[in-house]
Write a structure and sequence with these properties.
alpha+beta; 8 strands
């Protein structure tokens, strides 16, 4: 006889069919988000604030020009060599491989003459939750502190919501204190329950520490339960 207790109903494990159906929905969601017919910037081609007049352009990792690849590598080195410290040489190689992946989506920011920054993001699954994962948010030093980074992150969050993602997730180096302050205090992100510091704390592990935190902003109860409250 089946229980009428709603708690018992909620605690029932999903059937294999339900698991397969959920997996199928996830795959369809990602396939739709990655559709070549979809321009995620169609309604946001310009940025005109704080004395800046810039325009935005979409890009894909497997379609980057040589000039854009060189630019990405140079800006990453300028902005990230310091926060990564001794970890930078191997990390630079990882970022070079990630840069040209077919899954890599970009927002390039241009002034009248050249590119001045970019966002590298992807649609993926984290802990069975569809998310938009921000791999990089990089701006030329002269364009930092002018509200552009906040605008780009708000744009990324809108793209995530418009494509049915449950959260925006990103990784930040602990040494990059200005970035941590930016995300936690200015954009209301949280340290995710899947971040090493939270996982080690939950497991009672001491004496181990990673150089980074995983941050997130969730948009629905399911994502919040998994990525913030687990």
């Amino acid at each position: 006889m089946e229980s009428d207790d709603p708690k018992a109903t909620r605690s029932k494990k999903p059937t294999r069919h339900q698991i397969m159906q959920r997996k199928k929905r996830m795959e369809e969601l990602l396939r739709s988000a990655y559709s070549s017919a979809k321009d995620h910037l169609s309604h946001f081609p310009h940025y005109n604030t704080n004395g800046l007049s810039l325009f935005l352009e979409s890009g894909r990792g497997n379609k980057l020009s040589s000039d854009l690849k060189n630019y990405i590598q140079k800006l990453l080195k300028v902005n990230m060599e310091g926060p990564y410290g001794a970890e930078w040489p191997p990390e630079e190689k990882v970022k070079r491989r990630e840069m040209s992946s077919p899954e890599a989506l970009y927002i390039f920011v241009y002034n009248k003459e050249s590119v001045v920054g970019f966002v590298h993001y992807r649609f993926t699954i984290e802990e069975d939750v569809p998310v938009l994962y921000v791999y990089e948010l990089q701006l030329e030093p002269a364009y930092q502190g002018k509200g552009l980074g906040k605008f780009l992150m708000q744009l990324v969050e809108l793209i995530a919501c418009n494509n049915g993602m449950g959260a925006v997730v990103l990784t930040v180096q602990k040494q990059n204190t200005s970035a941590i302050n930016f995300y936690l205090n200015k954009l209301s992100y949280n340290i995710s329950s899947i971040s090493p510091s939270k996982v080690y704390q939950l497991m009672g592990i001491t004496g181990q520490e990673k150089s980074y935190e995983i941050l997130c902003k969730t948009f629905d109860d399911e994502a919040k339960a998994v990525l913030e409250e687990s």
